[in-house]
Structure formats: structure tokens, C-alpha cells
What we know:
The protein is of the alpha+beta class. It has eight helices and twelve strands. An eight-stranded mixed β-sheet has the order 8-7-6-5-9-12-11-10, with helices on both faces. A four-stranded mixed β-sheet has the order 1-3-2-4, with no helix packed on it. A hairpin with a 7-residue loop joins strand 5 (123-127) and strand 6 (135-137). Helix 1 (93-113) packs across helix 8 (310-328), helix 2 (172-184) crosses helix 5 (236-246) and helix 3 packs across helix 6. The longest helix has 24 residues, at 266-289. The chain is globular and about 55 Å long. The model is unreliable at 1-45 and 50-63 (pLDDT under 50).
Amino acid sequence: MSTSPEKISNRASNGAPTGGSNGRSTPGDEAPHSSSSPILTLTNVNNETAVVETGLSSRNGNSNDDTTLIPASTLPPPGAMIEVPGPPQFTTLLETQTWLKGQLAAAFRIFAKFGFDEGVAGHITMRDPIQPNTFWVNPFGLAFALIHASDLIQVSSSGAIIAGRPGQFLNPAAFMIHYAVHESRPDVLCVAHAHSLHGRAFCTLGIPLKTATQDDCVFYEDLALYTRFAGIVLEAEEGIEIARCLGGKKAALLANHGLLTVGQTIEEAVFWFVSLEKCCRVQLLAMAAGEMIVVGHDEARKTADVLGNPRAGYFCGKPLFDVILHETQGAYLK
């Protein structure tokens, strides 16, 4: 874009260029900038300006000048991403804990809505903001669709329930997997694991996910493949091995088992899980149909940088929570 105003060809209200029958403007067809032709003046952060004729007014001279100026500070530089909002901030840790417990309860309702529950299998954990060496998790045996914030149990680093109601139980597999991940990843707030249908099916193949769609790119070079299956995770060593395989990545395919995702927010971890489940489904369909076209390294890397970061994960996941709040009228918050 040049530093002087640049005129962009006027278009009629139906979206087609004005001018001759071939759709091209001729010198006689172009209208000068006047009060009969409102324009939109765009200025970016480099103070480069473009003047655009909107073509929305008549040319008989009876309409007023309508020029809109967009301040340079409101326009991102070329190629820049819009800064999306992050999670709410609170003044006390207790307020933060209350909010997070509500979001964790909502996460289970979302998993239930998507059909990620399988009997009593599956668990989502949240690191406690007051005692970071502990986490909150769903009580063993309670359906995802019925979980409230008050149902959640707090678990210590030794596997003891330190907060909850009498008669609640902890799934041993939940502790073995999630404690190991939380312990090895201090950057992680939330860990999600469930036996979703298509994720489970894909994990029986013991192969990596190919980067064949834009959504797959989110997991480019950020998806672990754990090929060892030793049955139900009831030993600490198995959880440690899963955490070691996950490393610094956002998700893992657990062979013969299912999906596992992590996030710096609950919304992020939930969205990665929902998205990865869909990616597995699409890949299974594509594999059955024929050979996939794989996205190139540069394109995949660029897409992952934009869509695969924690803030993007939170922002993409937030609508899921907004919908579940609307549908339940916040019933899970009690």
C-alpha cells in the first residue's frame, strides 16, 4: 500500500464492478470522490492510507459526504492477529477457586453432551490455585451429565481425598495419570482424558495423526503417541510413563486407550480434546475414502502458531462453556 491515498475501484451494490459490459471500469465510468460517493478511509499502524468508494449512495448529488476514518491504533499491522481476550482475573485465590470449580463442572457437562462418557471411565482434573500440589476431579461413579461444582473432590499428592462429601470415591486410574501429568507439567492447569468413540478407534491403529486439515495443524509437532498399553492404569509407573511421553506437548494418543489433552485453562484443555476427537473422526473417514493430501511443513507450522497456542485454545473453547451455561441455566454451579 502506498503512503499516499490509493483509490480502489468502486463496486455496485450487487458486488459487481461498475463500468462496461465486460465488468471493467473505463475512465468515463469512474466517479470522483465527492459528496455523492461516500468513501471509507483506512489507515494502518504504519500510517499508510487507502480510500475506498463504498458505492452505496446515488450519484445524483443528493446524498451527503459520509467518510469514515478508522484510527491507525485500531488496525492490526499486515499479517498480525487480533488480540483475543483471555480468562477472567480475580482479586483473591478463593474467588479463583470458586470460578474454576464451576468451569470444571461445566467441562463434564460438555463431555456428556458430546458423548465422551463411557460408564465410569474418564476424568478431568484442575490444579487447585490455593494448594497447587493438589487437584480437583470428578468423584468416581457419578455421571458426567449430573456433576455440580459441589460434587467435585480435592485430592492430595498422596491420593487422599481432602475435600468433598462423605461417601465419595476417587478413581485410582484418574490419580495415577493426572497426578503424574500435573507433577511433570507445572504450566498445566487442566488435564482431560476420556474414552471418546473416534479417538478410541483411531488409537487402536497405533499411528500418528497426519496433518491433513487445518484443524489437524493445531496439533502439528504437538501431539504425542504413547504406544505402550499395560491395561488399566493402576500403577504409578504407568502414569509416569504417560507423562514422560506427553512431554511438553498439548495432547497424546494413548494406544488401545483414548485421548489425553492438557491446557493452561480448563477451556483450552476441553477444546483440544473436542477438536482432537473430531480430527480423529475425519482422519478415519478420509483413510476409508482414499489417500489424504498432507499439509506442508511451512503451512502447518504457520497455522499451528496461530491456532494452536494457549490463548487461541481458550478463546475457541469458551463458546462451548457459554452454550452449556445457557442450556443448563448454570445448574452445575451449585
